[in-house]
Structure prediction request, 359 residues.
Amino acid sequence: MKNFPKLFIPGPTHVSDDILDILSTPQIGHRTPEISELIGGLTKRLQQVLYTKNHIYLISHAATGLWEMGVKNCAKKSILHAVNGAFSSKWSTVSDKCGFKTHVINYDWGLGVKVEDVDKMLSTGKFDVFAMVHNETSTGVKSNLSEISELLKTKYPDVMWLVDAVSSMAGIKIEVDKLGIDFIFASTQKAWGLPAGFSILCASDKFIKKSERINNKGYFLDILTYEKYYQKCQTPSTPSIPHIFALKKVLDIIQDEGIDNRWNRHKEMASLTQNWASSHNQSLFPEVGCRSETITCINNIQNWDINKINDKLLDLGYRMDRGYGNLRGKAFRIAHMGNIYKNDLIEYLNDFDKVLNDI
Ligand SMILES: Cc1ncc(COP(=O)(O)O)c(C=O)c1O
Prediction:
């Protein structure tokens, strides 16, 4: 589309024209058989993408609200937060603001969550909830879910495991049931490749049962409010119907691409970007073993003039990222997820090279 730069920022991400078209589909009633049929079909397909039989809720607000929903519906004791970047930090602040007792395992930015630290804290017996971000958007760090899954299954089966998968879901394979995640969610403006303001939530029976024993959760963020309407394949309040239509389109795109091809595409785009960075003698911000498939965060050790590059790339029709918060200029990110394909990325990196030559 003319005048709108193509987004290579880690959200909102590029929304393709076919999805934009679907967003203008005429509205349907939210208490009709048509919507129930639509949501029922979507639920089954979302369960396939997440490898789960758990309940899937369509949420017409940003993922930030799900940080709050997660903790409000299951914390009776204290909440353990792993904090290794800006978003995991914000989540722990949300728990504090909700009045919960919390403890934070703090990591330097660039590091992944370490299973031994989680074990050490959970062994105190103080916590009934463990909350973490799978893919720290601020740093491009992907933490290892399998190791944590093993720990929780073998030693702490009663602890509720909450995972923010905002910038990984639909771009990185997450086998929810195999891992045993109780509450996992993403908003749609990242690897789902849809506009912001809508989220997908997947919750286990264990989570829903625990919520039944918790009072004073309010109404809007009570998972039981969603559960009541889940049985009718509807949502408690009027949903964002354009998002629901567009989500169906994304699931068609995923089906056409093939789910394994989608995971592989994201892996390939990550390697391509990582190799591009090393070929320019830049280094990667995340530690080895924790590099995300959806976002590459590059240390600007060559001292490129990121603001100048940003202006030039904008002239060429791209919106780049200049680095999150204090990292601005020091480490910048390239997002490669959702509606960004290998050719789009190659085109972007080639144009990036032209800009580098120019300046
Ligand atoms: C990892 C992560 N969690 C949560 C959020 C907040 O999502 P939303 O803006 O949909 O509330 C973001 C936004 O970038 C994110 O990257």
Notes: The mean pLDDT is 97.
